[in-house]
Amino acid sequence: MRTYDFSPLWRSTIGFDRLFDLAEMAQRAGEDNYPPYNIERLSEDRYQISLAVAGFAPNEIAITAEQNVVTIEGSKAEKAERDFLYRGISTRSFKRQFNLADYVQVKSAAFDNGLLKIELVREIPEAMKPRRIAINGISTDNVQKLEAKAA
């Protein structure tokens, strides 16, 4: 895999620190693929992360939501030593992190048939949503009426 030097961009950009950090982390990632997961877009502003956590109970999994990061950690409780002839279901401890975009929040988590499903929603504050600006003192109501007359 190629590595890229972002230092020239650091000199000429402001406020993109998080983006460059994510790109550098992606370059270094010799990421462990356990547990396997899916990321789905359910609608324009709704997402779902599904992790295959067979062999784990809900009380052995911890989900932590911090600023722009959701962390899922699993640790199997130690039980009496068992004599496996073949062990194909992994129960090793894991820690998986997902970086979230601005305004994406964890809404809920559910455990169903060996899948941990985490619901995410992007909620943009009203102040950040687009709004119509009055031109020459004409209110937005008048603008909408003018648009209706023109149509």
Automatic annotation (TrEMBL):
Residues 28-138 form the SHSP domain. It holds the Pfam family HSP20. Belongs to the small heat shock protein (HSP20) family. The keyword Transit peptide does not apply. Gene3D superfamilies: 2.60.40.790. Keywords: Stress response. It comes from Bradyrhizobium stylosanthis. Transmembrane segments: none annotated. This is Molecular chaperone IbpA. It comes from the Bacteria. The keyword Nucleotidyltransferase does not apply.
